[in-house]
Amino acid sequence: MQELKKDWWKKEVIYQIYPKSFNDSNEDGIGDLNGIRQKLPYLKDLGVTMIWICPIFKSPMHDNGYDIADYEDIDPQFGTMDDFDLLLNEATKLDIKIILDLVVNHTSNEHEWFQKALADKNSKYRDYYIFKEGKEVPNNWRSQFGGSAWEKVDDEDAYYLHLFGKEQPDLNWENPELRQEIYQMINRWLAKGIAGFRIDSITFIKKDQDFASLPADGADGLVSCKHKTRNRPGIGSFLNELKKETFEKYNCVTIGEASGVNYEDYEEFIGKDGYFSMIFDFHYADIDVESGTDWFKRSHWQPKDFKELLAQSQETIQQAGWAANFIENHDQPRALSKLVHEDYQNKRSACGIAAMYFFLRGTPFIYQGQELGMVNAQRTSIEEFDDISSIDNYYRGMAEGYSEEEALHFVNLRSRDNTRNPMAWNNEQYGGFSQKQPWLEMTEEYPQINAQNNEVLDFYKDMITLRQSSEISSTLVNGTIEFLPDVPENVIAYVREYQGQRLYCLTNLGTNVEIFTWPKEVDEVFINSHKNDIKKAGNSLLPYQSVLFK
Ligand code: GLC
Ligand code: CA
């Protein structure tokens, strides 16, 4: 194999696959590994160079695979280890790298370690998790998915900690033997030839060891666990050790799901000697809510707020390291539904917001279906949701005093099921995803919005070609970024610069036509979401239009 440069991953374009919803090869209504393999030509044609596959390991699927019962095995819903090897092999032949989802803050309660911990109080596995003896709940922490973060152990005066669902007991990273087991597991996967990992909930691995209660912040009398368990002092030594024992040995790429990291700490996370290659920044992704876990706390954001957060994020990351740019993932609503006024949620706007983020400095991530311009689904009853946090948020919304209708509305806006609806490949029954009723409904729009004759898809291909293999590639990959202040409030304007070449990207994130003097006269247009004649349109931008030019 060719020696890879230290920061080889700067050149990649990463495509995120939610395996349950991507493509079903054996017609059981659930996406699977062979289904992904069948679509490799699609991914190659799109131009992406790496895929991140959400968890495919053995799991009872309380949180769709983020509850792992066996790190060494593939869940039968998705296929077998042979299917995985075949996928890896064929992807490699097409020059498409694969990264997996590493979930090591917690396991499933069905994991052998947890089962042994329950079966025998004195077994060494008891200390792999966080158990507290006593009749009373140890403290008032609320789990990320609602309710107490402690679950009582059957037939014992004891509780165990779960920062997510009760089927997801937290691992005790204070235990060195547990840490070694994790590192060995990671190394086995890296030795298999995967290119790296997206690392789940990683800022939660260090808990304040006083396990103290805090003043309640909700009607339930509980307080968000994150104040005592997210990015807490001491986490650095765990993350350093993790990197040294695993990732560093393989020169792999690592993308931390590192919510709660303050910008002052970015250097430690992604600097020259940082823990990860990149981390996801949620500061602007969560623009529509005051808190990513409390969807009934809506924010009333304006385009200029988004612009400020985006500029701050990019400028800080430029000082510290490299960005992981995204507008969608499996925990977020569809970007078109979130960022664009409802009267403009169309394919032109889908292209506009795409160009806005795709040319930022960093590695772009595309979430399945984003490249088709997919939109949120509208569900009329809580029964129609699968996602555990949607169900929790619905009941918590009502407990906080909202009506049932309001609570459902908030959940519809934010539900994680919005991006989990199956991928629509064509306009046939079930969108070509499966021959059978899929595990989650298709979106209503799938007969129109699917992978056939789709202008948004063509636009994504054009953007990827520009970034990967055009005369402006080096600037788009390596260039610095600077946000320009002298533009209208609703306009986002940045310049990418490299070796004297300057590229301008302008986006109108508002609903009015914006007429203003552009920062530079247009010599050459590389991409225009709205396809109009820029020279004729003269210094104006239509609602949600983006233009990249020099
Ligand atoms: C991360 C995942 C999310 C999951 C949670 C618990 O936030 O992205 O889907 O539910 O961690 O593992
Ligand atoms: Ca299947």
**From the helix content, strand content and strand pairing, which structural class follows?**
alpha/beta
> Biggest sheet: strands, sense, closure?
8 strands, parallel
CATH-derived topology of the largest domain: TIM Barrel
Distance between the termini: 38 Å
Bound compounds: alpha-D-glucopyranose, calcium ion
Low-confidence stretches: none
Could you tell me the radius of gyration in angstroms? Answer: 23 Å
Spatial order of the strands forming the largest sheet:
13-12-10-5-2-1-17-16
- Number of individual domains: 3
Helix content: 25-40%
CATH 2nd-level architecture of the largest domain: Alpha-Beta Barrel
| Shape by Cα distribution | globular
Architecture overview:
The chain is of the alpha/beta class and 550 residues long. The chain has 3 domains: 8-105 and 178-381 and 419-460, TIM Barrel (Alpha-Beta Barrel), CATH 3.20.20; 382-414; 477-549, Sandwich (Immunoglobulin-like), CATH 2.60.40. It is built from 16 helices and 24 strands. The strands form 7 sheets. An 8-stranded parallel sheet has the order 13-12-10-5-2-1-17-16, with helices on one face. The chain has a 5-stranded antiparallel sheet with strand order 18-19-20-24-22. It has a 3-stranded antiparallel sheet with strand order 6-9-8, with no helix packed on it. The chain is globular and about 75 Å long. The relative contact order is 0.10. The model has no long low-confidence stretch (mean pLDDT 97).
